[in-house]
What does this fold into?
Amino acid sequence: MMKPKKFISTVECPSHDAVSFVSSQCAGCGRAAVASMGRRLSTVHSRQRWRYQPLTAERRASCVIGALVITLTYAREARGGEMKLVPSSARERGMSRLDAILQVKRQEIERLLPLREELRKAALLRNDFRSFHAALDRGPDKLSLIAEVKKASPSAGVIAESFDPVAIAKNYAHAGADAISVLTDEQFFQGRLEYVAQIRAAVGVPLLRKEFILDELQIAESAAAGADAILLIVAALEQEQLVRLLETAALYQLDALVEVHTLAELDRALGTDARIIGINNRNLATFEVDLGVTEALSEEVPKGILLVSESGIKTAEDVARVRACGVNAILIGEALMRAQTSGIARLIPPDGR
It folds into this structure.
């Protein structure tokens, strides 16, 4: 299998201006030599690829992650407590991390049932949506950035001890992020649904509610809370569920980021009306990360569908690697959350702004 050319950057850590990178145009267009896996050959040539010029690649690629390495003035601490990964009972039963999370989600849905009508009415009354789709669709020559507000994760544990979601989101928006992803799961990611409304009041960019959605009620809840888009994870849903949830999202005027990790999941996503597909480089069963997943699956996504690469993007080289696959946007969370103000001067080259 041929592999995409790797671009070498003299900047090992992210530098300052992610926005200038995200909005910059590449010097030329070409195709990455990524294998098409022998399928849907008619779509192999449908997505444009990037060819970086060696010198400008270093500067442009090095800008992405550290650009949102901004002074995060965390003022308060979110709820404390030890990070919960997979409950011991789940481990004993041999459940994957995703299975354990979904088990908790089903219990949460049960608790929402009495609020069904109230949430449905609140969701239908909303008319202030910001287009997540439009924020990612900046043309064939530009890359959009979805910056994630996340306190913790099952794989990394607590990422930010001192955590002010509104301050973080405001800094992201000020730095020029095209959209913001907000983790709302409480048990595994230490998020809260209320963060969506709080952040919406403080920024003007579209908000993606990052949650494990299994039921229409959660979509109504998302719309009522102020989200502009939701995440639908193919691995967590039966095909009938996936189709039904996409229809429900459209009913409530929400965009949907349909997430896949394997070729089989991509096939299922393409069998729906999905307009935005996210390739998750993280295996949700094991939480292992491989950017090769974006390289392998990107060739199979036909023209006309917006493509997002998610998870594991931590360095300038990572950004260049997934951008070479022709993605429209990247979603970065942990790398931005871990960045510290003290490292900005070291990370920013004088000509990298």
Q: What stands out?
A: The two ends are 37 Å apart (CA to CA). Confidence is low (pLDDT under 50) at residues 1-46, 48-94, 340-353. The chain is about 35% helix and 15% strand. The first helix runs from residue 18 to 23.
